[in-house]
Design a protein that fits this description.
single chain; alpha+beta; Homing Intron 3 (I-Ppo) Encoded Endonuclease, Chain A; 7 helices; 5 strands; about 35% helix
Length: about 220
């Protein structure tokens, strides 16, 4: 009955404590055979070990150098991964997933930028391809790498327009003035009308240049 306390004699508890490192199946069968108990389950003995703090010496994790007990053994035919139903959905040699994204695949990021898969090693995963911003990738093909301390600013406000001529190389100090932030007192570049954008850009560049000159004095 659930919740019923199972009594153990001192001899039984002593045996259970002395043999606590045995695998639970062997532990249970050996105990029942030795003491003629048929009212104790594996779960009961497992709970007993936990309540008494009896350590088994096993963490459930493989340690360095330890080999799985089934290493090199094939799963029996007709069960597990060799069951006919399982085989139907398994990948065949040379098969690729239906959602594989190949070289040149494009996607749009949460920030609205187009990203493209290029043949560059991913520094985080080591994979042979990685996604980069397409506008920067295309701009650098024409103009070379973006210098340190600089960024590319979209001129027409359409971040998905990745044509290199639509992106202007500017110092990050200018970018801050164009984006707002502590410079929000002036009109943000992206909020300006198309005919006003060049003036906003020129003013931001001028202010940045004046600031840099004062720093240099």
């Amino acid at each position: 009955m659930k919740g019923r306390k199972i009594p153990y004699t001192k001899a039984e508890l002593a045996w259970l404590s002395d043999n606590r490192t045995m695998p639970i199946s062997d532990y249970h069968s050996a105990f029942c055979k030795r003491f003629g108990r048929d009212d104790v389950s594996k779960r009961n003995l497992h709970s007993l070990r936990k309540r008494n703090g009896w350590k088994t010496g096993r963490t459930g994790q493989f340690v360095k150098g330890q080999e799985p007990h089934n290493k090199g053994k094939k799963c029996p035919e007709g069960v597990g991964g060799r069951h006919p139903n399982a085989r139907r959905t398994q990948f065949k040699k040379g098969q690729t997933p239906h959602n594989t994204n190949y070289l040149g695949h494009e996607r749009v990021s949460r920030d609205g930028y187009v990203e493209v898969s290029v043949a560059e090693t991913n520094p985080h995963t080591g994979y042979e391809r990685r996604y980069v911003h397409k506008h920067r990738h295309e701009w650098e093909k024409v103009n070379g790498p973006v210098p340190e301390g600089h960024a590319l600013k979209c001129l027409d406000g359409d971040r998905q327009n990745t044509v290199p001529s639509n992106w202007k190389l500017i110092p990050r100090g200018v970018l801050a003035r164009l984006n707002g932030g502590r410079f929000r007192k002036t009109l943000a570049y992206d909020d300006a009308a198309p005919e006003v954008k060049p003036s906003v850009m020129a003013l931001a560049e001028l202010k940045h240049e004046l600031t840099e000159r004062r720093k240099a004095q």
